[in-house]
């Protein structure tokens, strides 16, 4: 009775509702985008009314918010942080730099497309995206979670070899613990 | 015999559910009040329910060893044990709990048991933030335990009993709350409550931006779920204890919720307008006026 499909559907709806309305964000302030996070959280735009709240450590976080460009050096740390987060986890790519490199399109030291290295669920476009755009991005993520389509972490597990090959391409010195869930 | 055991177990379950839901709601209201003070709208009052469900439905949870695995369980055990000892309503109108003569002394021990177990668990994670958080937490505990114990000892001397139920009965017989008949003990206990709840300015243990939430920094998912639930149960237990000791207990659940909410708002409202103390400032604060009032309470109890 507990494990049949119908009751699993009901449990999924409840769990997805809770996940959707309680997003603990680990704002990885890599680039200039981190400056847009304080106005999003404080009294003018107040993201906490949507259940969005800052998390202190990767272990507690649900959403990894990558704000801006990633150099190959910081990419290593971001991968480490992403693998420390607990399932289900989501990634938001924030700003043009995570989509196509933005103004760093011809830089030798930054990665251009974040999607090759980590599974991104939602992109927020703009350079910089304003707090309204950030809230829109969170709303989109909530829609995806409710529909059960925000399965980036599942994609990462299934295509780990592909992601690892891409990551090792740009990170020459790979001294990291193996990914253990 | 079996019927009695079942009755007690059922009472424990009902008390736990009550304490959990009321405590979680209070924590949600705390977030709402903080938001309103900061001129925000704030999350809905049921936000913490959603957080707890989300944490409970996380699919993975990593632990760093047996002691780390047991740390949150120790917290939960300590909370539930204090809840079962503290009488919820006057005259045993709610389900009977396990109180006995001398439970006030037992309670002093069992209330520190959970944080100590958590400290052991945090030690095994190997995270430096956890270790710093634990040392800070123990220092703060050494701070607020002194006025708290002084207040309770004053009550024990004044009324010559170590039973919570006896103290409640005394208040019911004389019709005077202990808040008025031993005011210094009440002041010392309330000031110690600031440290117990660990809201700012005494949030030095789990300072999120300074220590990455301290002892709980390696706990995610279901561990954090256990810690949040145990925190809410413990908050309700402490508030009920204060109501029982100083505010004459409660005759029904509505009065209990009202009194505990008023008590809960004291540390919350003090916290939202205060920044964070450093560790030595916090300890000095507790060993200053609160301990002085505790001493006055003991003097009053001994000589008047």
Overall description:
- With 181 residues, chain A is α/β, with parallel strands linked by helices.
- Chain A has one domain: Rossmann fold (3-Layer(aba) Sandwich), CATH 3.40.50.
- Helices cover 40% and strands 12% of the residues of chain A.
- Chain A contains seven helices and five strands.
- Chain A has a five-stranded parallel β-sheet.
- In chain A, helix 1 packs antiparallel against helix 5 (131-147).
- In chain A, 42% of the residues are buried.
- The mean pLDDT of chain A is 87.
- By secondary structure, chain B is an all-alpha fold.
- Chain B has one domain (2-303).
- In chain B, 74% of the residues lie in helices and 0% in strands.
- The longest helix of chain B has 36 residues, at 2-37.
- The N and C termini of chain B lie far apart (46 Å).
- The mean pLDDT of chain B is 89.
Which structural traits does this protein have?
heterodimer; A: 181 residues; alpha/beta; Rossmann fold; five-stranded parallel β-sheet; 7 helices; 12% strand; globular; B: 304 residues; mainly alpha
């Amino acid at each position: 009775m507990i494990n049949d499909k119908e009751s699993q559907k009901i449990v999924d709806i409840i769990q997805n509702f809770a996940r959707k309305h309680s997003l603990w964000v680990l704002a990885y302030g890599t680039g200039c985008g981190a400056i847009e996070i304080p106005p999003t959280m404080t009294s003018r735009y107040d993201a906490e009314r949507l259940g969005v709240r800052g998390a202190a450590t990767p272990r507690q976080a649900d959403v990894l918010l990558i704000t801006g460009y990633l150099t190959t050096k910081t990419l290593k740390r971001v991968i480490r942080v992403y693998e420390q987060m607990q399932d289900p986890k989501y990634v938001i790519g924030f700003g043009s730099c995570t989509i196509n490199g933005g103004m760093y399109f011809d830089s030798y030291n930054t990665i251009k497309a974040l999607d090759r290295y980590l599974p991104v669920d939602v992109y927020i476009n703009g350079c910089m995206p304003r707090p309204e755009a950030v809230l829109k991005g969170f709303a989109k993520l909530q829609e995806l979670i409710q529909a059960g389509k925000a399965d980036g972490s599942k994609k990462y597990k299934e295509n780990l070899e592909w992601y690892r090959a891409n990551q090792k391409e740009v990170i020459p010195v790979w001294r990291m613990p193996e990914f253990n869930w | 015999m079996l019927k009695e055991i079942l009755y007690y177990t059922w009472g424990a379950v009902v008390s736990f559910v009550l304490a959990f839901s009321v405590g979680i709601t209070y924590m949600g209201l705390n977030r709402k009040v903080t938001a309103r003070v900061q001129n925000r709208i704030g999350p809905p009052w049921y936000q913490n329910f959603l957080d707890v469900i989300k944490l409970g439905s996380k699919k993975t949870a990593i632990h760093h060893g047996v002691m780390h695995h047991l740390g949150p369980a120790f917290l939960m055990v300590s909370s539930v044990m204090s809840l079962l000892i503290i009488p919820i309503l006057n005259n045993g109108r709610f389900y009977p709990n396990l109180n006995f003569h001398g439970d006030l002394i037992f309670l002093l021990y069992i209330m520190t048991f959970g944080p100590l177990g958590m400290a052991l668990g945090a030690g095994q994670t190997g995270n430096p933030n956890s270790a710093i958080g634990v040392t800070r937490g123990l220092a703060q505990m050494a701070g607020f335990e002194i006025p708290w114990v002084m207040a309770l000892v004053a009550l024990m001397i004044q009324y010559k009993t170590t039973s919570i139920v006896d103290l409640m009965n005394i208040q019911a017989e004389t019709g005077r709350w202990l808040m008025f008949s031993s005011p210094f003990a009440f002041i010392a206990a309330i000031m110690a409550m600031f440290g117990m709840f660990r809201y700012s300015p005494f949030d030095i243990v789990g300072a999120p931006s300074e220590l990455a939430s301290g002892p709980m920094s390696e706990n995610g998912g279901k561990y954090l779920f256990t810690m949040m639930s145990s925190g809410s149960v413990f908050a309700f237990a402490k508030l009920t204890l204060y109501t029982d000791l100083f505010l004459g207990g409660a005759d029904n659940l509505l009065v209990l919720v009202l009194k505990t909410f008023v008590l809960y708002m004291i540390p919350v409202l003090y916290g939202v307008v205060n920044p964070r103390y450093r560790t030595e400032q916090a300890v000095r604060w507790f060993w200053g006026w609160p301990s002085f009032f505790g001493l006055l309470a003991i003097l009053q109890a001994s000589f008047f």
